[in-house]
Structure formats: C-alpha cells, structure tokens
Amino acid sequence: MRAVDERAAEILTPEHVPIRLEAAGLGSRFLAWVVDAVLIAALVSASLFALTLLVPFGVGGAAFPVAMFLITWGYHIYFEVRHRGRSPGKRMLRLRVVDLRGLPVTFQQSFVRNISRALDFAPLLYAVGGTAALLDRHHRRLGDLAADTLVVQERPAEDFSGTLAEGRRFNSLRTPGVLRRARRKVGLDEREMLLSLVLRAERLDPRARFDLMEEVGGHYRKALEIDDPHLSGENVVRGLLSILYSEKA
User: What is the DSSP string of 124-180?
Assistant: First the structure.
C-alpha cells in the first residue's frame, strides 16, 4: 500500500491493477460510532428486560454482566466479519472496515481491532484512539494499527453500462464452450478485477495498458481455450467482461 494523498491509499492487486482506498474522515467515523453506541445500549437494555422477566433475580443479576460483555464486544466483531466490515452505523454513513490490502477483514483482525477499544477509549470517549487517528495519515486508531485494518469511505458504484455495451457489439467469445468455461472458472473476485481493469484502462499509460491487457488477456486465452488469433489482449478482456456481466450469460 502507498499513500497517494493525505487520506487516500493505493494498493496493487496481484494482477497489478491499482485500487484507490479513501480513508474515512473522523467526523463520519464518530457519527457511525454514535449510531452503533445507541444500538448497543438498546440491545443491552433489551437483554436486561428479558432477563428480569425470564429468570430469577439472582441468576439474572449474574447473567446480565455476561450478556452485556458479549453484546458490547461481539456487536462490532459480528458485523465486521459477517457483513463485510459494515456495522449498522457504518452502513448508514457509507463506511467499511477493510484489510490494508483492500480485502475483507478476518475474524482475527476484527477481534484484535475491537479488543483494543479498551485502550482507544481511555481515559474517556476515545481520547487515546482519537489522538492516534489525528496523528495517523489514514486516520487509524490504535486498534486499526494493531490489526492492519483501515476504515474507508465507500462511493456510489460507477455506471459501467456503457463500457459493457461496447463489448457486446461484436463478441466472438459468445460461444457455448467459452460461456460454459467462463462460468465455471472465473470467480467473483476475478470478475471484479476485470471490471476494475477496464474502468481504469483510459487512465493508464498506453504502453502499460497494452502490456497489462496482453498479459491478462493471454492468461484467459489459455485458461478458457479461446481460439481466435485475431483478438488482441484487450479485446479478450473486454469481450470476456461483457459475457460475464451480460444477463444472458
């Protein structure tokens, strides 16, 4: 990962496609935390009410601290791992926690970044964590630094309908054999990589664009047994992207 401005970071995928990650601002992170804190407080209150009604007083008094601990610490871990880094507060503010490589956070990373909240929160209202975030270029609190994670700002999805439409005009890859092999061998991560490559193609240096398209196109030419010597690497990439995202594919 390398910095491209004060808040953004750029990573390279294994296919050498640059992906820009924009670190979330402290204001939006604070608002997301407020939303999540309100929801956590509501869940804790609901658990106290349920224990009061359903179990004897002595048992409920012992069970409540356990329930409060599980809710307080498990809330963020659950949403970060099971909902791709987005708690309800982060979803509302269009934020997401990711690995520094742009990948979804693992359970281990989420556990580390959230168990560190006790230190970040000290002495009151994230004073330590807020100070660390102010000093860090990408606004990472201590938990993020320890877990190698980053809270990023999500942007509305780009409209790539025109890009795909261009690939559908003349597509010699739309044959039963290629379609069948593409569905079986090209996973979701690879589809997203191909889409990212095509969307960024116009901003690449012409020579770098040609070399990268030839390398990626050559890989899929072999993997999918594409027998069309007249197709350039970029035509292979664009044609493959078209059939993968086509409704009929």
Answer: TTTHHHHHHHHHSTT---HHHHHHTEEEEE--PPP--HHHHHHHHSS-TT-SHHHHH
Residue 193 CB neighbours (<10 A)? 18
Whether residues 145 and 200 share a domain: the answer is: no
Pick from 123, 153, 183: which residue ends a domain?
153
- CA 2, CA 103: separation in Å to the nearest integer? 16
142 and 194 assigned to the same domain: no
Helix H or strand E encompassing 22: strand 18-22
Q: Are residues 22 and 142 in the same domain?
A: yes
Q: What is the pLDDT of residues 71-108, one digit of tens each?
A: 998 999 999 999 989 999 999 999 999 988 778 899 99
Assess whether 50 and 102 both reside in one domain.
Answer: yes
- Point out the domain boundary residue: 122, 153, 184: 153
- Is-contact 193 18, C-beta < 8 A? no
Model-wide pTM > 0.70: no
Q: What is the DSSP-derived secondary structure letter of residue 21?
A: E
Q: pLDDT digit string (tens) for 121-167?
A: 888 778 898 899 999 988 999 999 999 999 998 865 454 445 454 54
Residue 86: DSSP 8-state:
-
Q: Report cis status (omega within 30 of 0) of the bond before 88.
A: no
Residues contacting residue 106 through CB under 8 Å, at least 6 positions apart: 81, 99
CA distance 116 to 107: 14
